[in-house]
Amino acid sequence: MTGRVLVLGSLNVDSTSYVADFPAPGETIPSTGYAVALGGKGTNQAVAAHLAGASVDLVARVGTDAAATFALETVRGFGLALDAIDSVPDAATGVAQITVASSGENTVIVSAGANAFVTAAAVEQHRWDVAAADVALTQGELPVEAVERLAMLSSEVGTRFVLNLAPPVQISAVALAVCDPLVVNQHEAVALGIGDSETAGLAAWRAVAESVAGRLCRSVVITLGAEGAVSAAGPESASVVDADADAVDTEVTSRSSQCEAPRVTAVDSTGAGDCFTGTLAAFLSEGRSLGDAVAIAVAAGALSVTSRGTVGSYAGRVDLLAFADRMGMA
């Protein structure tokens, strides 16, 4: 059974340079490789959700430049429809300038371009698409007004709203309250006032997640890079099934989980978080519990770092589930 995911997302063209080590301020260094590829957190997540088996609608904006032609052809090549991707006259397509060190770590500079034209009105144009979706997903790379409108619209029509608040921009408490889940990494969590710089380890972050689920948002997922991820759901989350009133321990366990990431050799971590989030949305859309969806998403993120690139490193559903099964995660 597959679900339907609507992604309101940023769409960029990634320009990536591979280096031995990051340059110091004022230093010029040679690259060991260079690539131009499809990117943008929203588009990455849409591709990941599609590869994971979901039916995906991508609502995005591009410019009218050569980069737009490249981006649209690449989106189509992944099997995604272009119906909800509009061109903005006289605007540049969004660009991400990425540097990847030999350690697998990366730095990213994003120029929004046409992504800045994704407005609340643009969201409203897709009201019926949002209503038809099982999950509506967006990120912090878009204008806040659009993110908040999608949150409220999803609540109005009964669609599960997932927000990857990356980067951690200022979102209203009302919009955060309907996130199911709110997805952040540990650094974004600290920026939001969830946990602090001293918090370490899956167990500690799981306790933090439990403390905010049902209070700040309906549910929350915190990713911890190579360590894995934790999740927790409040009583209003779609992932919580009513438990026997006497089975308090069972109920608490069902509302939070932690998943250790499998050990892999990291080549390039670019887009791994997007792979995780898109995969998470796909499996939530088909009715998986939050804990089960997080475990499969952790497996997807781990697989993605074993090869170079963003969307080009994402595994399809069959390979992903086979890997997750071998790792005892599916």
Overall mean pLDDT: 91
CATH topology-level name = UDP-N-acetylmuramoyl-L-alanine:D-glutamate ligase
Return residue spans where pLDDT drops below 50 for at least 5 consecutive residues.
Answer: 243-253
Tell me the β content. 15-25%
Number of beta strands? 13
Instruction: Identify the quaternary structure here.
Output: single chain
Query: What is the CATH homology-level superfamily?
Result: Ribokinase
CATH class descriptor name: Alpha Beta
The number of domains = 1
Overall geometry comes to: globular
Count up the helices: 12
What is the CA-CA span between the terminal residues?
A: 16 Å
Largest sheet: number of strands, sense, barrel closure: 9 strands, mixed
Order of helix and strand elements from N to C terminus: EEEHEHEEEHHEHEHEHHEEHEHHH
Helix content: 25-40%
Question: How would you portray this structure in words?
Answer:
With 330 residues, the chain is an alpha/beta fold. The protein has one domain: 3-Layer(aba) Sandwich (UDP-N-acetylmuramoyl-L-alanine:D-glutamate ligase). It is 35% helix and 23% strand. It has helices spanning 41-51, 66-77, 120-124, 127-132, 144-157, 173-177, 186-191, 202-212, 248-255, 272-285, 290-304, 317-326, and strands at residues 4-8, 12-18, 33-39, 55-62, 85-87, 94-100, 106-111, 135-139, 160-164, 179-185, 219-223, 228-233, 256-260. It has a nine-stranded mixed β-sheet with strand order 5-4-1-8-9-10-11-12-13, sandwiched between helices. Strand 6 (94-100) and strand 7 (106-111) form a beta hairpin. Helix 1 packs across helix 10 and helix 11 (290-304) crosses helix 12 (317-326). The protein is globular and about 50 Å long. The two termini are 16 Å apart. The relative contact order is 0.15.
